[in-house]
Amino acid sequence: MAHPTEHDRTPNASEEPAPYSASAPLPSTTGRVRTHHLQQAKDQGRKFTMLTCYDASTATVFDTVGIDVLLVGDSAAGVVYGYRNSLPVTVEELLPLAGAVARTARRALVMADLPFGSYQGSPEQAYATAVRFMKEAQVAAVKLEGGAQMAPQIQRLVAGGIPVCAHIGFTPQHEHALGGYRVQGRGADAEQVLADAHAVQDAGAFAVLLEMVPADLAAQITHELNVPTIGIGAGTGTDAQVLVWQDAFGLTSGRLPHFVKQYADLSTVLTQAARAYAADVHTGVFPGPEHTF
């Protein structure tokens, strides 16, 4: 019989449980969110939440407030590593980030992106990559981009015991093939996105992420699919929403995607704090007597 790991364990009565969001539809304070809880939320007509996450500090905050799913996305390419798009980030670069989040989160389901080039070659390549994220980082699921053409990869992973979230619509790893950041599924292209949604569900995906898809199409897909949908730039009709946390909370500089709502201006707060610290050091105010042994 397998012994429970730190990743799987339920906190005992002597531990302080993470506060739970009153509006969250998923498990109790002491439970860990699983894929079947996401399915239950859809079946009950209740929304769930998802944010990107790349480190232990933010994982603690998001987990504490009751964010249901934490995605260690290949968006780390830009917000962590400074690349211009998601293509350069590697498995070796994402694994330690995924491990940090998975070790920290006590409640949220932690999911990791499979980087560009690490799964498209064959189902066996996809399985080998996904196994590394499951074993080395101890995530609970992986996400990969692509519709019907990725069905063999999804089938292989699911057959091997790895939960898969499929990502369709605008797929950032295909930025160059798609001609840039463009909405997918308008007009005659809607049928292809709809077909992709059904294909990845039929292949065994436990959820489908819809990015930059017209709201009416996303709502139709959500209605037709049995599995949950997660939207980003896909309107309110999906079962869940996800955003890159630096975009949502104001740490990203420059122009934001049209679909982002900013809930804070952390860039200004951090700038002011850094300036105050520098001024205190330059003037000798810090460290003061209270900070000195």
Automatic annotation (TrEMBL):
<feature type="active site" description="Proton acceptor">
    <location>
        <position position="211"/>
    </location>
</feature>
<feature type="compositionally biased region" description="Basic and acidic residues">
    <location>
        <begin position="1"/>
        <end position="10"/>
    </location>
</feature>
<feature type="binding site">
    <location>
        <position position="145"/>
    </location>
    <ligand>
        <name>Mg(2+)</name>
    </ligand>
</feature>
<keyword id="KW-0808">Transferase</keyword>
<dbReference type="Pfam" id="PF02548">
    <property type="entry name" value="Pantoate_transf"/>
</dbReference>
<feature type="binding site">
    <location>
        <position position="74"/>
    </location>
    <ligand>
        <name>Mg(2+)</name>
    </ligand>
</feature>
<keyword id="KW-0479">Metal-binding</keyword>
<feature type="binding site">
    <location>
        <position position="113"/>
    </location>
    <ligand>
        <name>Mg(2+)</name>
    </ligand>
</feature>
<dbReference type="InterPro" id="IPR040442">
    <property type="entry name" value="Pyrv_kinase-like_dom_sf"/>
</dbReference>
<feature type="compositionally biased region" description="Low complexity">
    <location>
        <begin position="13"/>
        <end position="28"/>
    </location>
</feature>
<feature type="binding site">
    <location>
        <begin position="74"/>
        <end position="75"/>
    </location>
    <ligand>
        <name>3-methyl-2-oxobutanoate</name>
    </ligand>
</feature>
<keyword id="KW-0963">Cytoplasm</keyword>
<dbReference type="GO" id="GO:0032259">
    <property type="term" value="P:methylation"/>
</dbReference>
<keyword id="KW-0460">Magnesium</keyword>
<comment type="function">
    <text>Catalyzes the reversible reaction in which hydroxymethyl group from 5,10-methylenetetrahydrofolate is transferred onto alpha-ketoisovalerate to form ketopantoate.</text>
</comment>
<keyword id="KW-0489">Methyltransferase</keyword>
<feature type="region of interest" description="Disordered">
    <location>
        <begin position="1"/>
        <end position="32"/>
    </location>
</feature>
<dbReference type="GO" id="GO:0015940">
    <property type="term" value="P:pantothenate biosynthetic process"/>
</dbReference>
<keyword id="KW-0566">Pantothenate biosynthesis</keyword>
<dbReference type="GO" id="GO:0008168">
    <property type="term" value="F:methyltransferase activity"/>
</dbReference>
<feature type="binding site">
    <location>
        <position position="143"/>
    </location>
    <ligand>
        <name>3-methyl-2-oxobutanoate</name>
    </ligand>
</feature>
<dbReference type="InterPro" id="IPR015813">
    <property type="entry name" value="Pyrv/PenolPyrv_kinase-like_dom"/>
</dbReference>
<feature type="binding site">
    <location>
        <position position="113"/>
    </location>
    <ligand>
        <name>3-methyl-2-oxobutanoate</name>
    </ligand>
</feature>
<dbReference type="GO" id="GO:0005737">
    <property type="term" value="C:cytoplasm"/>
</dbReference>
<comment type="similarity">
    <text>Belongs to the PanB family.</text>
</comment>
<dbReference type="GO" id="GO:0000287">
    <property type="term" value="F:magnesium ion binding"/>
</dbReference>
<dbReference type="InterPro" id="IPR003700">
    <property type="entry name" value="Pantoate_hydroxy_MeTrfase"/>
</dbReference>
<comment type="pathway">
    <text>Cofactor biosynthesis; (R)-pantothenate biosynthesis; (R)-pantoate from 3-methyl-2-oxobutanoate: step 1/2.</text>
</comment>
<protein>
    <recommendedName>
        <fullName>3-methyl-2-oxobutanoate hydroxymethyltransferase</fullName>
        <ecNumber>2.1.2.11</ecNumber>
    </recommendedName>
</protein>
<dbReference type="GO" id="GO:0003864">
    <property type="term" value="F:3-methyl-2-oxobutanoate hydroxymethyltransferase activity"/>
</dbReference>
<comment type="subunit">
    <text>Homodecamer; pentamer of dimers.</text>
</comment>
